[in-house]
Amino acid sequence: MGTGPLASNAMNMNYLDLxxxxxxxxxxxxxxxxxxxxxxxxxxxxxMAQWLASLGAEVTGFARDPLxxxxxxxxxxxxxxxxxDIRGDLADRDxxxxxxxxxxxxxxxxxxxxxxxxxxxxxxxxxxxxxxMGTIHVLDAVRRAGHPCQVVCITTDKCxxxxxxxxxxxxxxxxxxxxPYSASKGMAELAIASYRNSFFEPTHATSTSDLxxxxxxIRVASARAxxxxxxGDWAIDRIVPDCFRAIRAGAAIPVRNKIATRPWQHVLExxxxxxxxxxxxxxxxxxxxxxSASFRSAFNFGPTLASNRTVAKLVEELxxxxxxxxxxxxxxxxxxxxxxxxxxxxxxxxxxxAWEPVWNFESTLAHTASWYVRDGNGEDxxxxxNEQITAYTAAARTKRLPWAGEFKSGVEV
Length: 413
Hints:
Elements (H helix, E strand, L loop, with lengths): L14 H8 L11 E5 L4 H12 L3 E6 L8 H4 L8 E4 L5 H11 L3 E4 L6 H6 L1 H22 L3 E6 L25 H20 L9 E2 L4 E2 L1 E7 L3 E2 L9 H11 L3 E3 L5 E3 L1 E2 L1 H15 L15 E3 L7 E3 H10 L6 E3 L17 H7 L7 H16 L4 H18 L8 E2 L2 E2 L1
Parallel strand pairs: 1-2, 1-4, 2-3, 4-5, 5-8, 8-13, 9-12, 10-15
Antiparallel strand pairs: 6-7, 11-14, 16-17
Helix pairs in contact: 1-13, 4-6, 6-7, 10-12, 12-13
């Protein structure tokens, strides 16, 4: 296999280049700050832990042991970047509460979840327990600790009541979910809103609020993104890992739902949104707001409409970036229900956070394919992640996005 169109581009930056590029990212909000990251052993959590560490954060991870397919955590040596690597279950309410009380994090990013639609049909009770009660346990640990912090809970684009509309879903649309996974995430969003309204708003004269200036001491937001792709994901029943398992085995790629349309985005896209949302909660003045009130809510982080493509188009674009490979249609009319259309509107993130996607569909697939191909050729996983974080940040600076440097209204300051 070759490395595709990215073989000779600016990907070959070293770790010092990364630190130089990132020194002004996210308004320096994470340098020297205590960050609790749940789900740090997973695919998205491993990428996020690496980025946070490069920003100078002191990261404490809380998660179960990686599943057999979650190899990126070990491959990239993520444990070595952490202040603490705590293994525990979200069901253990007392353990979670003790961790939050002891660490006293400045930021919490709650990523831990049962993340697979098809698996949720096999383990519905465990899916609801992890995704709903697990989120409640995190929020209640914050409530009990009473320590000022910024909390960003990660859910999914599938939390919406999917009516197979052609138009994009907005943050105020109804929660729902046909399958247990989607329903559990809709329920988690309701729980997040309930805890925020009941315990974490300035209207409540409790130890968790600071009434001076109408600002909350504990600031809670949620972030919705989905169909995240990128190097190092080996989950079962996800199309990109299925592609590269087949390619490495010299087999045809099995495609079970070729006409389903999804908002495909590189893993760094939503993570940049999560980090910027956390920074906005802590420092709303960087975006010209007197308080964090505008950010204590739900936000969509998705790609442009042009990146909403069918599964078949995704597979064909991936194959353009590798030498050889084929796919076969394995559609099954009796398979468990999965949504066929799903788009996210990101107007709110654009207008309030000045956030927008950086890589288009073709770039996303090129970077994803490059990571897997180079990994298959024996290159270091951590270096590959760091190079892509650098390249992504550089592209964001070119677009003059505020999170990527000292920009206001498109002017560098």
